[in-house]
Amino acid sequence: MMGGCSNSCSSSSSRGSSSLAAPPPWCPKSPPGGLDLFGKGRQLVKVQILEREIGLLQEELKTVEGLQPASRCCKELDDFIGAKPDPFVSRNEKPHKSSCRWKWICLSWIYCSSECQKPTSCACCPSSNSHRHSCSCLENMACQSCCKITRPSCPRFSFCCFNSSLCNRTKVNLCCSKTLHKSCCL
Amino acid sequence: MSVAELKARHVAATETVNSLRERLQQKRLLLLDTDDLIEVVAVAGYAKAHGKSSVSFGATDLVCCRTLQGHTGKVYSLDWTPEKNRIVSASQDGRLIVWNALTSQKTHAIKLPCAWVMTCAFSPTGQFVACGGLDSVCSIFNLNSPSDKDGNLPESKMLSGHKGYVSSCQYVPDEDTHLITSSGDHTCVLWDITTGLRTSVFGGEFQSGHTADVLSVSINGSNSRMFVSGSCDSTARLWDTRVASRAVRTFHGHEGDVNTVKFFPDGNRFGTGSDDGTCRLFDIRTGHQLQEYYQQHSDDEVRHVTSIAFSISGRLLFAGYSNGDCYVWDTLLAQVVLNLGSLQNSHESRISCLGLSADGSALCTGSYDTNLKIWAFGGHRKVI
Q1: A76 and B268: CB-CB below 8 Å?
Q2: Which residues lie below 8 Å from residue B75, measured CB to CB, with a gap of 6+?
Q3: Global pTM value
C-alpha cells in the first residue's frame, strides 16, 4: 500500500506536465503469499461441521440396531388412531354424541343454498317425512341462533329443533315462532 | 494447513458422510419388517395385512360451511386459537385478520408495519397474535390493546435477530411468553417474548443444522421441548430445545424443499410436505420413514405440497397443493379419499395454508384466491 501511495504521489507530482501519460489507477496489493484468510476460515468451519456430522452418524449407527422394527411403529400408529374419537371419521355414532361437529353444520343452514336442500345424511334438522329426530346438538347455544333468523322462503328445511325445558313436548319448533320459547311444538 | 489441504479434507469428509448415511439407510431397511419391505409403504402394508378398510366419503359428507371473505390479497398463513373458535390469517394485503369462525365476523383487522407477511400464529390464551415475514422480524400484537390514533393496533413486541425472512412461527403450547420461529437464515429460534431476546438459536453457520432456508416448524403437542423443522435442504430435523448445538435427528428422503411439517397427534411421529409432490410420515424415536403419500398423475406436472394437517385421531391427513387440490389422505392405507379442491364451493386457486380447529371438528383452508374456507363433516359412516 505504501508502494502504491508512493507511486501515486510520484505520479501526481508529474501530473502537472501535459506531456506525461496519466498514472494507472491505484489499487491495493494482495497480502504476501496469495492467501485468502477469510476463505480459509470458512473452509475450516465447513470441514469441522462435516467432521461433527461424521461423529453423529457413527453414534447413530451404533444405536440403530437396537431400534424397534417398523411394524411396531405401525401398530402404535394403528392403536392410537383406533382409540381416538375423530369428528371427521364417524364410527356408527349417533348424532347427539358428537355435538361438537354439529355446530358448524347447524349454523350453515342459514347460509345454505337458496333451494334449502338438506343433505340426507345430516340429522341436525328434521326431514319433511319424520318428526322423530334427536336434535340435542342444538342445545349448543351457537346452534340456537340459527333458528331465529331462518329464511321464511325455506319453511320445510329451516326448522331447528331442540329439547327445551320450557316446552312440555320433546320437540320444540323454535323457528316457527316469532318470539323465543313461545313455540309450536312438533 | 493450506487451503488445498482443507479442500481435500472437505472432499474426504463428504465422502465419509455419504458412506455412513448409506450404511445407516441399509440398516434401517433391515428393520422394515412389514409385509411390504419398501420404506415408502410400511404403514399401508401393515394396515392391509390387518384387514383395514379405507375411509370413504359420500358426496355431501364433507362440506364447506363458511367462506371467510375480507382479505384483498393472497392468504399465506392461518392459525386457530387453542380455545374458542377464532382464526387469525395473514395475507399479501399486509393485514392480519382475526375471525370468529362460527359467525364469520371479523373481530380485528391489523394493518402491519411491514406488508410482506408470511406467517401468523395465535398465542395459547388467544390474547396475542404473532406474525413475521420479509422484514426478518417477528411482531407481537396484544388483541386487547387499544388502537392508536390512526386506528391501528400497535405492536406490543418486536423480536429482532434473524438475518433472513421469518417463514413460520408457533407459540410454545401453554406459554404465551415463548415462541419458535423458522427463517431464511437457515436457523430456528426460541424467543423469550417478555425480554424480546433469543433464548436459543438452532443451527446456523457454526452449528450443525439446516444448510438452507428453513420453511416450517411444528412443536410437539405432547412434549413441548421437541419440535421439527422443514427446509429447502430437503430435510426435516428434530430438535430438543435444551440442546441447540445440533439436531437430535435429521430425516432424509424428500427430493425437494420441505415446505411444511406437522406433528402427528400422538407426538411420536410427524408428517412432511414437499416440492417433490409427496407427503411423508416419519417416526421421531427410530427415524424410520413409515409412509409416503403420493398420487401419480397422467401429466408430468409436479404438484408441490404447500401445507398439511392431521385430523385429531391422525386417521386423515389433509394436504394442500400448489394447483388448488386439497387431498384428504387415509393415513393408514395411503389412499386419497377425497379432494376438497373438486367439491362445490372449493377454492379457485392454490391452497397455501390449512389448519384444524382445536376440537378437531373443522378444517380451515386459506388460498391465493384471498378467501378462507371452513370444512366440516356432516354425514354418518361406518369404518371397519
Answers
A1: yes
A2: B89, B90, B91, B92, B352, B353, B366, B367, B368, B370, B371, B372
A3: 0.75
Minimal CA separation from A100 to chain B, in Å:
6
In the structure, what pLDDT confidence band is assigned to residue A163 with cuts at 50, 70 and 90?
Answer: very low
**C-alpha to C-alpha distance for B181 and A8, rounded to whole angstroms:** 53
Q: Which residues contact A140 (CB under 8 A, 6 or more apart)?
A: A99, A102, A103, A106
Kindly give the residue spans of alpha helices, DSSP state H, lying in chain A.
2-13, 37-64, 70-83, 99-108, 141-148
Contact B42 A92 (CB under 8 A): no
Smallest Cβ–Cβ distance between A105 and the set B33, B65, B208 belongs to B65
Q: What is the mean pLDDT of residues B147-166?
A: 91
Whether B265 has its CB under 8 Å from any CB of chain A: the answer is yes
- Sign (positive/negative) of CA torsion A44, A47, A53, A58? negative
What is the rounded CA–CA span in Å between residue B317 and residue B164?
31
Residues of A with Cβ-Cβ distance to B290 under 8 angstroms: 70, 73-74, 77
CB neighbours of residue B59 within 10 Å: 12
What secondary structure does DSSP assign to B234-271, as a single string? S-EEEEETTB-SB-SEEE---SS-EEEEEE-TTSSEEE
The residue among A61 and B306 whose pLDDT is bigger is: B306
Inter-helix orientation angle B42-49/A70-83, to 10°: 70
Helices (H) and strands (E) in chain B, counts: 2, 28
A86 DSSP β-pair partners: A89
Specify the higher pLDDT residue, A7 or B368. Answer: B368
The pLDDT of residue B300 is 73
DSSP-assigned beta bridge partners for residue B237: B229, B250
The 3-class SS string of A131-168 reads CCCCCHHHHCHHHHHHHHCCCCCCCCCCCCEECCCCCC
Q: Scan residues 53-92 of A and list those with Cβ closer than 8 Å to B.
A: 53-54, 56-58, 60-61, 64-65, 67-71, 73-78, 80-81, 84-92
pLDDT mean over B2-17: 89
B58 closest CB neighbour out of A56, A69, A121: A121
pLDDT tens sequence across B273-317: 999 999 999 999 999 899 999 988 877 777 999 999 999 999 999
Provide the chain B residues 307-346 that lie in CB contact (below 8 A) with chain A.
311-316, 331-332
Q: Is the CA virtual torsion B193, B166, B125, B91 positive or negative?
A: positive
Mutation target to probe the B interface, by most B beta carbons within 10 A, among A36, A42, A89 is A89
Cα gap B384→B378, rounded to integer Å: 19
Q: Give the pLDDT of residue A30.
A: 57
